[in-house]
Specification:
mainly alpha, 128 residues
Length: 128
C-alpha cells in the first residue's frame, strides 16, 4: 500500500514546496531531487520484483515456474464464463470489471516482460 501512496505524497510535497518556498529555483531543485529519489525507489522495487521472478523461474519446481500463468488463465476463464452466461445473474458489474482489469494488467506485464527478455537476449548477443 505504501508504494501506491508515494506518488501522491510526492505530488503534495511538490505543491507545498511551490507554495511555501519563495525561491522558485530552490523549489525546482528540491522537486527535481524528490523526483530522482522516487525513480531510485521505483527502480529498487522493480529490481526486487525481477529477482523474485527469476528465482521462481530457476527454482526447478514446475509449480513455482508456472503459478503466474495458471493464475492468469484462471482469471481469463472466469471472464469467458461470465460472457457465456455461466456466472450468477446478480454478479455486480464492478466485480466483472475488476476481473477484466486484473487480466489486462497481467497480460500487459507478461507481454512487456517477454519483450524485455527478448531484447535483453538480443542485446547480450550483440555485445559479444
Amino acid at each position: 500500500m505504501l508504494p501506491a501512496l508515494i506518488p501522491i505524497i510526492s505530488s503534495l510535497a511538490g505543491k507545498a514546496l511551490d507554495k511555501f518556498v519563495e525561491d522558485k529555483d530552490l523549489a525546482k531543485k528540491i522537486n527535481a531531487e524528490m523526483a530522482l529519489e522516487m525513480m531510485k525507489y521505483e527502480g529498487k522495487e522493480l529490481d526486487s520484483a525481477m529477482k523474485i521472478i527469476v528465482a521462481e523461474a530457476q527454482s526447478g519446481s514446475w509449480l513455482a515456474q508456472n503459478w503466474r500463468p495458471i493464475t492468469m488463465l484462471t482469471f481469463v476463464a472466469l471472464i469467458v464464463a461470465h460472457w457465456l452466461g455461466f456466472t450468477p445473474q446478480n454478479m455486480p458489474e464492478a466485480q466483472v470489471m475488476a476481473l477484466l482489469e486484473i487480466v489486462k494488467v497481467g497480460l500487459g506485464g507478461y507481454v512487456l516482460g517477454r519483450s524485455g527478455e527478448k531484447i535483453a537476449k538480443a542485446w547480450k548477443g550483440e555485445g559479444k
